[in-house]
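Work Package 3 (structural annotation) set out to generate three-dimensional models for the target panel prioritized at the project kickoff. During this period the team completed the workflow that converts sequence records into discrete structure tokens, so that structures can be stored uniformly alongside our sequence database. As a representative example, we reproduce one entry of 357 residues exactly as it appears in the project archive.
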Amino acid sequence: MSPEFLWYIPNTVEPGHRGDDTKDGWGTLDFSTELARAAEDHGWGGALIGTGWGRPDTFTVATALAARTTTFKPLVAVRPGYWRPAHFASAAATLDRLSGGRLLINIVSGLDNGGAYGDGQGDPARRYDRTKEFLQLVRRLWTEENVTFRGEFFGVEGSTLSPRPFGADDGRTPRLYFGGASEAAERVSATEADVQLFWGEPLEGVAERIDRLRSLSAILGRTHAPLEFGLRITTLVRDTTEQAWHDAEAKVARMADRSGSLLSGPRRRAVGQRRLHDLAERGEVLDSCLYTAPGRFGGGGAGTTWLVGSPDDVATALRRYGELGITHFVLSDTPYKPEVVRIGDQLLGRLRERVPN
């Protein structure tokens, strides 16, 4: 299997996302299109498009970007509580058909301001139960006719989609990415997702989770194609190792000036985020070049840990994840517009030559 390399489009109206000092354009179609076209022109398969209440609607943005690009694959982040499954299945099938099969989906079950859009499901365990049911119903709607489904959370009667996803007659549907480190989340991935996304943990932790998910897939009787694995992480790449670390430390110093240390305060509730914050207690640099300091000063999610170094340093680190079974890489750094070019040009050629298939 050839590896997939995706960038990240922040999709926010507020400037300053993860320290990006760009002042104008946030939340506009032109700004997002520039990022998508730069990704397309510099070796990326597409980009993850962020989601959250109070941000531009992710699916609308993805549709506009698909219309303005040729090969760009939008990895659209969506929440089951924001969408009803039949509405989502129809919208996704339509965009996938119109774009010639370019749609990718990232299902998000993490906490959000659900009350603002009428989602009353707040219990984490029940959220994952609902996510599992959402995925099961969406798959049926993409692949079957006259679907009747009566679940605990969702139901449809005699439902048939038109159009179907691109290539549905040959068994193809949009690929479903999913994240989460809790036991409940891993049970959803093991049975219903196509790709499990990991944050930037050390190799040892990722290897352990891959082994556990493969075992869970067998124990729980997975019926889909084997689960694949992806990595979502910040990559700070410079011409030399020395320059990369100089710039990384300077960026973290600016983060510290703005926010102060967060390690002594309350930890975020998500299991995966707690795992990342705990890494800082093991050391500032883990494996060859995994930098944990950003998480002490406000870095969250993919910004909590960074791979730092020259193109060869970071390529070597990513190849080691590839050797564990990672085949999907969602990378980014800020400022987004110059870094999509720099990292695409300096890193992707190395990875495509040498990442194991």
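The chain is about 40% helix and 20% strand.
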